[in-house]
Design a protein that fits this description.
Length: 378
């Protein structure tokens, strides 16, 4: 995810995907020359840490985590201009997470010693070829066509975790069954809540040039999955718009999922009022399994409270059916507040979030969490 739209700067979505990871670094990113006059290397990244308090009805803990909505990372982007119309590019991006909010648990306490949870991950290792009239080809590990497809979001609160990829914070938290008074055979949040977002993988991908705010993408991933997407971003009068629609055929590498279709849209008025929605459907391979379905919505407001940058507020709600098993209905809702510091590309934020699950034959306590943190760009 690149869940880092910075209020009105979110229109980078349409056509600037080559530097999407770098966009999180804000104005602090540094440009370096390597002796080749037409080659430029840009280095940037951020550190994102938070204090997370969570309670599942039986167990509660306070943890120091990396926020899964915008994990700590560093990015290297090389741009090599051949002619006015054609250029090469290459990108390396690495994630360093010492206590990821998506893998810590409550009842097992694995977040109490962060050394056991430290990971260093290669997110991107790719080359690009871009032509102004013919589009862009990507090759290597990077975003598939449907990566970030649910993240059309102009609210400015996504960096806190108040956005459509709902389970990146607390996805390993297990629901406590009040009937059996046990965690045994109970699902985790990530088992029953699925935004259907795309991913990063070794793939070849093609993006068309942007025409009237639209561009299309298609990708083929090593091992077989094929994906296609259409995105839109533009400003019409007092409104800023962003939307995306994608399809992914996962039958070649996934033993349980056939395919999925998902879309999202967001609108921002110059007054600061905004709204975002996403919805998706996943077809399972087993004839006995009902399709997974999800719908998510958010309303928000971007205020000018302080001179350092906008203050963004968001309230969201999502419903996820049949992902863990038939007749499951999981819900999530959250409130996020983000203070942006535009001159340095950093934010401080507060997030309150809850997960609920209704399952036939079981009764689960809600999982609630409160998180406060900061993302500092460099």
């Amino acid at each position: 995810m690149s869940a880092f739209p910075t209020c009105r700067k979110a229109t980078w979505l349409a056509g600037a995907l080559a530097v999407s990871s770098l966009a999180i670094s804000g104005p602090a990113a540094a440009e370096i020359k390597n002796g080749q006059e037409k080659v430029k290397l840009t280095i940037g990244g951020h550190v994102n840490k938070a204090v997370l308090f969570a309670d599942d009805g039986k167990t509660s803990r306070t943890l120091i985590v990396d926020n899964g909505a915008a994990t700590t990372r560093i990015n290297f982007l090389a741009e090599a201009t051949v002619t006015e119309d054609f250029s090469f590019g290459a990108q390396l991006e690495f994630e360093a997470s010492s206590n990821h909010s998506g893998i810590v648990t409550l009842h097992e306490g694995n977040g109490d010693s962060n050394r056991a949870n430290t990971t260093h991950t290669e997110r991107k290792a790719e080359v690009m070829m871009t032509h102004k009239r013919f589009g862009r080809i990507w090759l290597g590990q990077g975003s598939t066509a449907t990566d970030e497809i649910v993240e059309s979001d102009l609210s400015g609160t996504a960096v806190s975790g108040n956005y459509a990829d709902s389970s990146v914070i607390g996805s390993a938290f297990v629901f406590y069954n009040t009937r059996t008074r046990s965690y045994t055979n109970s699902p985790a949040v990530g088992d029953v809540i699925n935004s259907l977002n795309g991913s990063m993988d070794d793939r070849i991908r093609y993006d068309t040039p942007t025409i009237a705010g639209f561009f299309a993408s298609g990708s083929f991933t090593s091992g077989g999955p094929g994906e296609a997407a259409l995105r839109y971003s533009d400003k019409l009068g007092p409104f800023e718009l962003a939307a995306a629609l994608g399809y992914a055929n996962l039958s070649g590498i996934n033993t349980t999922v056939e395919d999925r279709i998902v879309g999202s849209a967001s609108i921002l008025h110059e007054s600061g009022l905004n709204a975002s929605v996403s919805a998706g459907k996943q077809q399972h391979k087993a004839a006995t399994r009902d399709d997974g379905k999800s719908i998510y919505g958010k309303i928000g407001y971007i205020a000018k409270v302080f001179g350092v940058g906008p203050t963004a507020f968001g309230i969201d709600y999502g419903v996820y059916n049949n992902y863990g098993q038939n007749n499951d209905e999981a819900k999530t809702y959250s409130i996020g507040v983000v203070q942006h510091f535009d001159d340095v590309g950093s934010q401080v934020y507060l997030l309150g979030k809850a997960y609920e699950l209704d399952r036939t034959g079981a009764s689960f306590d809600d999982i609630r969490l409160l998180m406060v943190g900061a993302r500092v760009a460099f």
